[in-house]
Amino acid sequence: MANPKSNKQIKIIETWCKGCGICVEFCPVNVLKLIDDKITITDKDKCIRCGLCELRCPDYAIYLEEDKDEK
């Protein structure tokens, strides 16, 4: 699933999130939560960077981005 040495980080564009909760349902490690109808990451360290949230988000509000600090 995820590459444990991946330098990608999960990012959210809150203004694009409509609060559908699809990403929450697909997250295999339960690090996503809806708070006030917006997606929130509860624990970035537990995220396995599998990309399922990015793949399933109909609004492109959540994605994986390379961590520029790691380069």
Automatic annotation (TrEMBL):
Superkingdom classification of source: Bacteria
InterPro entries the UniProt entry points to: 4Fe4S_Fe-S-bd, 4Fe4S_Fe_S_CS, Fe-S_Ferredoxin
PROSITE patterns (alphabetical): 4FE4S_FER_1 (PS00198), 4FE4S_FER_2 (PS51379)
Listed Gene3D superfamilies: 3.30.70.20
A GO term, aspect molecular function: metal ion binding
High-level lineage: Bacteria, Bacillati, Bacillota, Clostridia, Peptostreptococcales
PANTHER family reported in the protein's UniProt record: ADENYLYLSULFATE REDUCTASE, BETA SUBUNIT, BLR5484 PROTEIN
Ranges for domain 4Fe-4S ferredoxin-type: 8-36, 37-67
SUPFAM superfamilies per UniProt: 4Fe-4S ferredoxins
Species for this entry: Natronincola peptidivorans
Keywords: 4Fe-4S, Iron, Iron-sulfur, Metal-binding
Keyword Transcription regulation among record annotations: no
Name the record gives this protein: 2-oxoglutarate ferredoxin oxidoreductase subunit delta
Keyword Transport: no
